[in-house]
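Methods — Computational structure assignment.
A single polypeptide chain was analysed. Its primary sequence is given first, followed by the predicted tertiary structure written as structure tokens.
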Amino acid sequence: MSIKLIGPFRQLVTLRQLPKKGPLKDEQLEIISEGGLVVQDEKILAVGKFDQLKSEYANQEVSYELLEGDFIGLPGLVDAHTHICFGGSRAMDFAARNAGKTYLEIAGEGGGIWSTVKHTRAATQQQLTAKMSTRMDRLLANGVTTVEAKSGYGLAPDQELKMLRAIKNAGANHKMDVVATCLAAHIIPKDIQGGEQEYLLQILEEIVPVVQKENLCRRFDIFTEQSAFSVDGSREYLKKLKALGFDLTVHGDQFTPGGSGVAIDCGALSVDHLEASGDAEIKALAASEVIPVALPGASLGLGCPFTPARKLLDLGCSLAIASDWNPGSAPQGDLLTQASILATFEKLSTTEVFAGITFRAAAALGLSDRGRLAVGMLADCVAFPGTDYREILYLQGSLKPVRVWKGGEVVVGNH
């Protein structure tokens, strides 16, 4: 039961006591100068001034992790929406889209989501695990200590289960935490006999029982969109999953509204995208407990408008920000860079961005034990070089962490 004191940080940004919903001003941000963290059994035991903590624990057996230099400490980042388990590349799609080709033209030339489906189906479970682990290494080096990862490029029971097993294996053998989500309802497969109703029934009958038996995930997602699954079909599907005890999330309002209403009706934890949300959808979300998740990477990849983040916050919603790292629409995968760019275009305060990639993102995953530097929370922390927390977003992702702790243990950087 050893106790460790980490510090001093020139600035320790705690995010404790900030609300889950609504706008946030930088004046609300707690900054502890010359701060420290006391850690025991992967949890934070105390937070405060380093010298005061050193004095308070002087009579106990304490080890010290002394920081020499200038460091800014933040909670470990949480990327609440990714598709980092996949095979192949869609570089051809990106180049063709920028050259003016339409989605249908790209798909006709062998691109589009079905290209990723073919490459993912061709990969072994071990290959998918290895590729995902490499992407997780990059995320961890960028300060992400918890990541969500979806299936959705198998689009057949055996292939979706292969993806979920690969995700589970990658998470079990990595230093960061992985939250798995089944997105078998990504699009209606080209090669299925029947349509939406038949495919959703197949998921419920052939995938869900195995997921339960092997404990492959606790979350299900669906893409509610005119090009994917209908509002009525999505609602019926999710309510059946809710009755089985699964957490829910929805890809919603990306191109047309409708998905946010499904998320509210079904009691989903989050609805992700929302680029097409209007005032009516935003007001309904504000009156619910559903957390909106902005995905600026998709807007950058597709050249589409950003999620109306400013309006969501001002009307009383929460706001998480995630990378949507995927091979098609959001290949960049750099959460901090994307969040910084979203802040510029949507006029988000530094506090709103930090909240959106830490404790509000954790809440979108149903997690309440991380995302703040506070007593009882997981000791997940990231240190950036410098003396002014505002430099982190000012440099738009080019300022990288020099040290990352998971459960109080250094996983990136040197002691």
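Note: The chain has a mean pLDDT of 96.
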